[in-house]
Amino acid sequence: MDLSFKRHRRLRKSKAIRNLVRETHLHTEDLIYPIFVTEGTNVKNEVPSMPNVFQWSLDLLDEEVQSVVDLQIEAVIVFGVPNEKDDVGSSAYDEEGIVQRAIRQIKQNHPELTVIADTCLCQFTDHGHCGVIEGGTIVNDTTLDLLAKTAISQAKAGADIIAPSNMMDGFVVAIRTGLDQAGYEDIPIMSYAVKYSSAFYGPFRDAAHSSPKFGDRKTYQMDPANRLEAIREAQSDLEEGADFFIVKPALSYLDIIREVKNDVGAPVVAYNVSGEYSMVKAASEQGWINEKEIVLEKLISMKRAGADLILTYHAKDVANWLREERGGHEHA
Fold it and tell me: Which residues make up the binding site for Zn(2+) (predicted)?
């Protein structure tokens, strides 16, 4: 019998050969781990909807940071949960705010760790929105001044990267201008350039106490149905001075990650958000899935789509798994 066809299985016949031809790789240095810091002492509160994710008071914070460092994860992003909130989120830009104190502490104890500051108002406003409210409307331009103040205070505290997540028009240029004028022209901006109004954020709002008290965020976060709008948003942030581009959420928006990567030609960060994390954890606890295989598969899909970095609550688990796969040594 004379058959002519391609024998693709030749390159799948053993694990060693499969590894040789593997196109996409996931490394520990690709990961950014989120940390929630809160006021008080001796606080280690597990987030009810996010197993193994905690709110940490500063006196216990180094326990969490040390575990990250020990796993050779090189970057964390800090979210704050303050005691007091007001209508303009003033504790977001207070130099003695919870985020600013956490950044100083982390950098003092672990100067080698890259510390990213989430720059937004929603955790700090009593109404839970990402901007100033006037007459029931989230006011764009007034908010920009407060976001710039927040970014400057975070840079002054020692943040290595500023990550504004508010989706106000012009937020990147306002923060870039503020940082430059304050002498922080070398601090990069990791913009939440493409942030959809998603149903996947619920557990995060549980962790950060940031649910809006009225309405929703659809006037400033993007419609999940839109693709071209994402390119416009990313291109605007590129022109305004952003250095990294976050796409959030990740798993339902892999096509957007690829398009942003192709369009802006700069580092793209996939934010593997809280709802994506919690669904996996819940299914795993029921014994319905293999957690390790599911998590590694979905993170590989983000890298394959074009993500250079992945911001994920799975980061510590993934770092452990990668280390185990390499016999205790995770290498690039």
Answer: 120, 122, 130
